[in-house]
Amino acid sequence: SAELCLLPALATLLPPLSGPGGPGPAEVGLGALPAELRAAVRAMVGDLDALFTALGLREESFAVGALSRVVAAELASYTPARNRRRTATNKASVIFVDRTLDLAGAVGHHGDNLAEKILSVLPKLPGHKTDVMVNMVELTALQTPDETCSIIAPGCLAQPNDPAAKVLWESFMNLKQKEAVMEARRHLVEAASRENLPIKMSMGEVTPEQLSSYIQLFRNNLKALENHCGLLQLMLATVQTLKHPQTSKWDNFLAFERLLLQTIGESEMPSVLNQLLPMIKSYNERTKDDYTCEDFLVLLVYIYSVVGEIESGKELDAAEEEVKKALVKAICDEPEPSPLLQKIT
Fold this sequence. Notes:
This protein is mainly alpha-helical. The chain is 54% helix and 5% strand. It has 15 helices and 2 strands. The chain has a two-stranded parallel ribbon with strand order 1-2. The protein is globular. Residues 1-19 form the signal peptide. This is SCFD2 protein.
């Protein structure tokens, strides 16, 4: 979008976690990092310099976190960057922040944002970090129960050649979900009206079923399909996200996170973990509303990120041991572990 540029090539760059045997935050310089991470930092500095050159920027860098300090220092002493800063005309402040300092933000469910939900629940477009596959079967005469119908190429979110779709995507990113969905309906009604399709405008709350029925109007009209292809891909992404089981779970996550924040304020970490324990269920015991192994890993990352420093002791050790046992059992009982669980095990 106009305000946000993602650099997917750098998606795997994470600061080393300080732990037993790891470098302490004070002593991290480029030389103290593992060779692979050193190479990644140098590549990042080169990429950023190329980006700033294209934008004609003379940057002033600020850093929050150990790895960010290394990146900022490398950029400051990088010879091509020094030359660029002498001649560049536009000034900018650049703030580097270690991703591990905001894990609670990355795993929390506090965003009431349609774009975030679409990117979270729909399957990734193969080879892409920042785009998703949108099932386009609904726009065809082929009716198949197969979720992953591979005969029809998937749609995606990036629609650089469709001005209406670009405007709509901006609203998905910048508005609250309810407003974004209403905006989606408005765009769809306008597109259908322009094509003289028999659309019945209805007021009130927007439902995925209502959007689906509007999308169906385009189905047998090739000209209309061609004219609004980009917009229709975003509409289908919206419908598929709103109907996705993970979206209904989003609110459960949010409620549980809020409850945890209250509980952590009032009691110690062991009692929070003991609350979590009965909810960890193996594959055979789970219903569709229960948390999966991955959901628990996300919740645990959230809990430990929010709590900060923890007083260790016998009670905590015992509670953690119980949670570990339950999680290991649940992971081992998965009939088809997801790629993430396979990677972890």
